């Protein structure tokens, strides 16, 4: 009993205890002031990625195109995937674009803090600009890869539908989910270095657990709401296909569940990131 009293007596006063509080307006202002740094980090990562490569920016196209070819040769012929009448190469490529963006963003963002420790310990800036810079690079790669989509439309003589006007809504949900996962991956990798080895495996499994090579209708209808909550990319990718290829509106119910889940993930992930960022230098 005396030991407990002694420990309480040695504890610092309540008013001296440090508590990390996340103030949204202050955070947004700080991020806006650091926008040039995020752009500079993205440019540096872009140069490092393609420096001294023979194909250069073509690598942004090669990965989704090769996966599209593999999916077309195996899934289309063997599994007989229902595409709603759209050519399967278009069907798979429309799914591969958002998945490639997500996968590349999370993979690069997970290393963004660890690989910039020397800079983090010398310069003060919002730490989230490092994973955000990685997302900017993945976004540029996706924009380049989207050029192939126009070529596929021309080759297959299949035109995008007028309902493509819904794409910005789908893109907002996709960005929200991607940023939330990227922030979590970035801060978790600092404290749990095993993630550097295990994350690529999880992303590989995620490719086949997400309706990229197949449609969302392959998942039992009773499980789709739960699936949309656990993996918001499912209704997002399905929405891209519905709007761009099939001339239909997205499934607003499933998309709403995915959007709510993405928002919760982003807010929770960002709050956790800000609370843990003060200890980055201690575990470096």
Key descriptive features of the protein:
13 helices; mainly alpha; 284 residues
Instruction: Give the strand tally.
Output: 0
Strand content: under 5%
State the helical fraction: over 70%
Tally of separate helices: 13
Topology:
Layout: H1 2-10, H2 24-33, H3 35-50, H4 59-79, H5 88-112, H6 117-120, H7 129-156, H8 167-191, H9 195-209, H10 224-230, H11 233-245, H12 252-276, H13 280-283
Structure description:
The chain has 284 residues and is mainly alpha-helical. It has one domain (22-283). 71% of the residues lie in helices and 0% in strands. It contains 13 helices and no strands. The protein has helices spanning 2-10, 24-33, 35-50, 59-79, 88-112, 117-120, 129-156, 167-191, 195-209, 224-230, 233-245, 252-276, 280-283. Helix 5 packs parallel to helix 8. The protein starts with a helix and ends with a helix. The model has no long low-confidence stretch (mean pLDDT 84).
Summary, kept brief:
With 284 residues, this protein is mainly α.
């Amino acid at each position: 009993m005396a030991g407990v009293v002694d420990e309480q007596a040695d504890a610092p006063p309540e008013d001296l205890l440090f508590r990390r509080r996340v103030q949204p307006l202050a955070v947004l202002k700080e991020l806006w002031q650091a926008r040039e740094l995020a752009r500079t980090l993205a440019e540096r990562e872009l140069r490092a990625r393609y420096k001294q490569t023979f194909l250069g920016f073509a690598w942004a196209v090669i990965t989704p195109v090769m996966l599209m070819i593999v999916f077309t040769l195996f899934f289309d012929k063997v599994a007989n995937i229902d595409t709603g009448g759209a050519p399967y190469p278009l069907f798979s490529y429309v799914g591969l674009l958002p998945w490639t963006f997500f996968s590349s963003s999370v993979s690069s963002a997970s290393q963004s803090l660890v690989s910039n420790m020397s800079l983090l310990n010398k310069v003060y800036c919002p730490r989230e600009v490092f994973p955000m810079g990685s997302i900017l690079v993945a976004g540029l790669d996706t924009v380049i890869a989207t050029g192939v989509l126009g070529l596929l439309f021309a080759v297959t003589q299949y035109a995008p539908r007028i309902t493509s006007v819904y794409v910005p809504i789908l893109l907002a949900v996709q960005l929200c989910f991607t940023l939330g996962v990227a922030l979590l991956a970035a801060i978790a990798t600092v404290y749990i270095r095993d993630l550097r080895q295990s994350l690529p495996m999880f992303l590989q499994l995620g490719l086949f657990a997400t309706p990229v090579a197949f449609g969302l209708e392959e998942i039992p209808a009773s499980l789709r709401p739960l699936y949309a909550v656990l993996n918001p990319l499912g209704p997002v990718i399905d929405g891209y296909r519905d709007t761009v290829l099939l001339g239909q509106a997205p499934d607003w119910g499933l998309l709403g569940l995915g959007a709510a889940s993405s928002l919760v993930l982003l807010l929770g992930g960002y709050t956790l990131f800000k609370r843990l960022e003060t200890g980055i230098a201690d575990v470096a």
